[in-house]
TrEMBL record:
<dbReference type="InterPro" id="IPR012896">
    <property type="entry name" value="Integrin_bsu_tail"/>
</dbReference>
<keyword id="KW-0325">Glycoprotein</keyword>
<keyword id="KW-0245">EGF-like domain</keyword>
<feature type="domain" description="Integrin beta subunit VWA">
    <location>
        <begin position="31"/>
        <end position="202"/>
    </location>
</feature>
<keyword id="KW-0472">Membrane</keyword>
<dbReference type="GO" id="GO:0098609">
    <property type="term" value="P:cell-cell adhesion"/>
</dbReference>
<protein>
    <submittedName>
        <fullName>Integrin beta-1-like</fullName>
    </submittedName>
</protein>
<dbReference type="GO" id="GO:0009986">
    <property type="term" value="C:cell surface"/>
</dbReference>
<dbReference type="GO" id="GO:0016477">
    <property type="term" value="P:cell migration"/>
</dbReference>
<keyword id="KW-0479">Metal-binding</keyword>
<feature type="signal peptide">
    <location>
        <begin position="1"/>
        <end position="20"/>
    </location>
</feature>
<keyword id="KW-0460">Magnesium</keyword>
<dbReference type="Pfam" id="PF17205">
    <property type="entry name" value="PSI_integrin"/>
</dbReference>
<keyword id="KW-0677">Repeat</keyword>
<dbReference type="GO" id="GO:0046872">
    <property type="term" value="F:metal ion binding"/>
</dbReference>
<dbReference type="InterPro" id="IPR057073">
    <property type="entry name" value="EGF_integrin_2"/>
</dbReference>
<dbReference type="InterPro" id="IPR057243">
    <property type="entry name" value="Integrin_I-EGF_CS"/>
</dbReference>
Length: 452
């Protein structure tokens, strides 16, 4: 049993982390598990088209690995039990949480806060914390210690995956292991369940008889695990029938060029040609795909609004078309009345396609159309004054706006001045569009000529 004063902060996790960062990722790794165990900074790319699939995150991004194809576990902490308590007695202190499960990636520290509730006014000169035996290679430290009602941080790190020589039970190399954090003052212990992730989770998604592996193997984390007697990157070689140099396995069809003319056949596997631009690459079983043979728009591949995958543009959100040049955002098509293309056209790729005779960027220009004053004049005449050519059908044709009368034309901003042909008097009004509908403001009194 190890006794640790809470004020002690061991440097072992930092040393382990520092040493791990100096390690280079195993670029020759052939499996995901082999890769992630070569260093805490190492990431596995499930895209089998990459020459080196085990590297740092930034290196894989530069090599063109899609983020969805990256496997980079960091571990996790799950609080199982976190009960509160009433006022603790003078003799005990109460820890929270009481039960925690940790999944550790070797070399990556996981932390969680441990709150210590003390009796009111009780001094704690130095709190001693005990831990039950800790598995080999796992280290537990405590930091951020303060007296009184103390939140502290528990740091747990596994330096490596245990070998058969590290453990009495060879089958239990990854846990779970139970470790108890206790103190003579604790009312109860804190139970830690520790697991070390020495295998990639993607191994659980095993695709047996995968077409990628020519139905002669299982696809696991983007790699083929071949059934006997097959071998090769895609299980394409039957070692009982082939000497390993059969070029048939490097052709998509009987008369197809070797490796699509983009690579070299090496013992039944295609090794794709490199490009001068390191961001451009061929991939696929037959080097049949590329990330640069896609349509261009404005001198940018996929218009700068998508990525190229096997000759096709995968467009970003809000963009479409084969070259990702078509914006599906309608903001640029919004007219002054807040209608898309003024309600007189369709917004296509960020531009209005207007219905004749309407024209202009937002379909608000119409040289042969009546202006707004002329369009609404007869309905305003009949609604406001009961006069004009529509007075007999006013209710049926002119109830599309909300009418408000004001005292004079000076109360109307930029009014329309129209003449009523029934009485030859002028009337003044304005029309506006709001979210609640069409509104008409009209001067309550007509302006009639003095000679009348």
């Amino acid at each position: 049993m190890a006794v640790k004063p809470v004020c002690l902060f061991l440097l072992l996790p930092l040393l382990l982390s520092g040493q791990a960062k100096k390690q280079a990722c195993l670029k020759s790794a052939s499996t995901c598990s082999e890769c992630i165990l070569s260093g805490p900074q190492c990431v596995w790319c499930t895209d089998s088209g990459l020459k080196s699939r085990c590297h740092t995150l930034s290196a894989l991004e530069r090599a063109g690995c899609d983020p969805h194809h990256m496997y980079n576990p960091q571990g996790r902490v799950h609080v199982i039990r976190n009960e509160s308590t009433t006022e603790p007695t003078a003799e005990t202190v109460f820890p929270q949480p009481q039960e925690v499960t940790l999944h550790l990636r070797p070399g990556v520290s996981q932390s969680f806060p441990l709150s210590i509730t003390t009796a009111r006014g009780r001094p704690i000169p130095e709190l001693k914390i005990d831990t039950s035996p800790v598995p080999a290679g796992v280290n537990i430290t405590f930091s951020n210690i303060r007296h009184g009602n103390m939140p502290m941080e528990v740091n747990v790190v596994a330096g490596h995956c245990r070998t058969t020589s590290d453990t009495i039970n060879p089958k239990n190399r990854t846990g779970p292991w139970s470790v108890h954090i206790t103190s003579g003052s604790f009312s109860q212990s804190v139970n830690l369940e520790i697991n070390v992730e020495c295998e990639c989770d993607c191994k659980r998604n095993r695709e047996e008889n995968s077409p990628t592996c020519n139905s002669h193997g299982a696809l696991v984390c983007g790699s083929c695990e071949c059934y006997q007697p097959y071998l090769g990157q895609y299980c394409q070689i039957n070692q009982e029938l082939s000497d390993g140099r059969d070029e048939r396995f490097c052709r998509r069809g009987p008369n197809a060029p070797l490796c699509s003319g983009r690579g070299t056949c090496v013992e039944g596997d295609c090794v794709c040609h490199s490009q001068e631009n390191p961001n451009e690459r061929y991939k696929g079983r037959f080097c049949e795909c590329s990330n640069f043979d896609c349509p261009y728009h404005n001198n940018r591949i996929c218009g700068g609004h998508g990525r190229c995958e096997c000759g096709q543009c995968i467009c970003d959100n809000d963009w479409s078309d084969e070259d990702c040049s078509c914006s599906i955002d309608t903001i640029s098509c919004m007219a002054s009345n807040q209608q898309v293309c003024n309600g007189q056209g369709m917004c296509q790729c960020g531009s209005c396609r207007c219905d004749p005779p309407y024209a202009g960027p937002t379909c608000e220009n119409c040289p042969t159309c009546l202006g707004p004053c002329q369009t609404h004049a007869e309905c305003v005449d009949c609604r406001a004054f009961g006069t004009g050519p529509k007075k007999d059908r006013c209710e049926a044709e002119c109830n599309y706006f909300i009418l408000t009368k004001v005292e004079s034309k000076e109360d109307i901003q930029a009014p329309c001045k129209m003449i009523s042909h029934e009485d030859s008097c002028f009337f003044y009004f304005s029309i506006s569009q709001t979210p609640t509908g069409t509104h008409c403001t009209v001067a309550a009194t007509k302006e009639c000529p003095q000679w009348k």
